Amino acid sequence: EKVFFGNKIIDRDEASFSFDDRSMYFGDGVYEVIRVYGGHPYKMERHFRRLQRSADELDIPYADEEKQALEKAVYELIAANQLDEGFVYMQLSRGIAARDHLYDRHTEPFSFAFTQEMQTPKKQQAEGIAVYLTEDIRWLRCDIKTVNLLGNVLAKRQAADHDCAEAIQHRGDTVTEGSSTNLFIVKNNQLQTHPANHLILNGITRQLVIELAEESGYTVSFTPFTTEALLEADEAFITSTTNEITPVTEVRGTKHGTLDIGPVTSRLQEMLQADIETTRHG
Ligand code: PMP
Prior knowledge:
There is one protein chain. This protein is of the alpha+beta class. It has 2 domains: 2-117, Aminotransferase class 4, branched-chain amino acid transferase, N-terminal domain (D-amino Acid Aminotransferase, Chain A, domain 1, 2-Layer Sandwich), CATH 3.30.470; 122-280, D-amino Acid Aminotransferase, Chain A, domain 2. The protein has 8 helices and 15 strands. The protein has helices at residues 22-26, 44-57, 64-80, 122-127, 150-161, 204-215, 227-232, 263-280; strands at 2-5, 8-11, 29-37, 40-41, 86-93, 110-117, 129-135, 166-171, 174-178, 182-187, 190-193, 220-221, 235-240, 244-252, 257-258. The strands form 2 sheets. Strands 7, 8, 9, 10, 11, 12, 13, 14 and 15 form a 9-stranded mixed β-sheet that branches. It has a 6-stranded antiparallel β-sheet with strand order 2-1-6-5-3-4. Helix 6 links the parallel strand 11 (190-193) and strand 12. The two termini are 24 Å apart. The structure holds 4'-deoxy-4'-aminopyridoxal-5'-phosphate.
């Protein structure tokens, strides 16, 4: 198993992290997960653009050479590990420096990447999942994809403890997003999802779904909605790189209810699959 580590492709066993990496002390780093279908990375450019934005927002220097090295690493790792179905994880840390809250703008960033095999969660996509409503306790820059994921991690555990596959976070009454997914509802053939502001991560899959929906004539509203609206929706689904489009069939937590898998969700699933197939077959 090969990994990309500090600008080299090496064996995973040989990679050892520095004691003083700022991502260890402060969660001071950004990351991306790129899905690989049939050995081909899916929407790689969009993920790299978001990595750039995350780095910029955190004042982490991200030079062109770094970007080129990471892009090259994606292909090299897929080849070296003979990855067919899975994903590439990549992380860019602010770098290695003695522990100090105050960062130095001259610290050199440190990046690494690895691949992991995975299969599309077909069963969940076909049958839907239960989600657990929980208060969104995260900071106010959820638009940045940082490795500081404690709110998300606690929410996911809470969901699992209630036999739910995903947590749906809300700030007061307003639904924001899942712990590692975005949420859409459908009401009277209109889609609705939280606006891409500082309160959610603007998912690549979210963006694809919006484009596919608009192409096929659906309107998408970016008005925030309440937990009540989720329960009263005709359909609801979550999106992410690894989940693609997964229907929500049950809501648990402070409010309870069930939902059917509807035609809009199914249609969007088909459209996304068709796009994925063009990648899979090169
Ligand atoms: N929201 C959060 C909080 C996430 O962690 C993720 C997945 N990383 C998403 C949404 C979905 O984003 P994407 O479609 O780019 O995977």
